[in-house]
Every structure is written in structure tokens, then in C-alpha cells.
Amino acid sequence: MIALLLQLFWTFFLIGMFTFGGGYAMLSLIQAEVVIEHAWLTESTFADIVAISQMTPGPVGINCATYVGYDVLTSAGAGHLMGVIGSLTATLAITLPSFLIVLMLVRFYTRVKGSPVFESVMSVIRPAVVGLIGAAAVILCLKVDWNGLVPSLGIVEENFPDWKSWCLAAAAFVAAFRFKVNPILIILVAGVLGLLLY
Prior knowledge:
By secondary structure, this protein is mainly alpha-helical.
């Protein structure tokens, strides 16, 4: 079992190190390693794990690693306790690379903070980040193609289906921006209102 834990750790460490693009980008690499390369799980079991990972809170890639770690150990004949250790091993392994990279960036930041060159670079990056967030908001609100803000076929289609959706979005914005309501409370209230309205 120790050899399997070490193999599990190394596999998920590499996945965490070389996956870019967030949790959903990790899923194909996890599937390639767990189902195809090592044959620890079947396709159907992996599909079930992905479905559960999407329904539970937290990043889907990390949730998937947690469930896979448990399932790999218990499928190999280990008990519940070893399954939990497998979950912890896979979760630690997939998050460790990001933690180490952020730690190095923090050390770098403390050294260059206050440097005129660094401040100049950040003054250019900040507006770009605002633009990217604004572009993401537009893409979520309108169905646009990747060639820009001109919708396909010249027709502007809204992802918000009706006036009730716009009212909910506006109320959430006012609650967060003007009244500083806790975002979790906003999500819960919006979910309940969405169920009642639709």
C-alpha cells in the first residue's frame, strides 16, 4: 500500500505541476493518468467521481483528486482509514505545486515591492486585469464569438433569459456594492428567489 500511496502522490503532484487553466483543465489529465495510464479506475467510476466533484463545494480538480485517492485505495483492497489517507495524499499532492509556486512568488514580491520597475509593471497590469474581468462579464451576459464582441450572425442574444434575471442580478449588485451584504448570503437568497420565480 505504501508503494501505491507514493505512486498516487507522484501522479497527482505531476498533474498539479503541469496543468494550467483551472480545475476543469485538470480533469482530462487526471482521466488520462488514473483510467488509461495506471488503470486504477474504470471510465464509469471516473465519470461518477467527476459528477460528484462538480456537485460538492470547492475546486472540481481538487475534489476529483480527493475522491480518486479514496477510491484507488479502497479498490485495491484497503480499508476505510487507508482510503482517507489516499484522499489526503492525492489532495496534498495536487495542491502542493501551486502552494510552492505562490510561496516563491510571495518571497519575490517582498523583495521587489517598492521598486520603481515593479510599480511601473503593476501600473500596466492593473488596467489589463480590469479589462479581462469586464470582458468575462460581457461574455457571460451576451453570447459572443471569440472574434470579439460582434455576436455570431449579427444577432445579440442574451444569456439572461428575461427581466426577472436582470432584476436578480441588479439586486445582487446593489446588495453587494451599496449595502456590503455577505456574498454567501446573496448567493443563498438569489438561489431561493430563483427557485420561487422559475
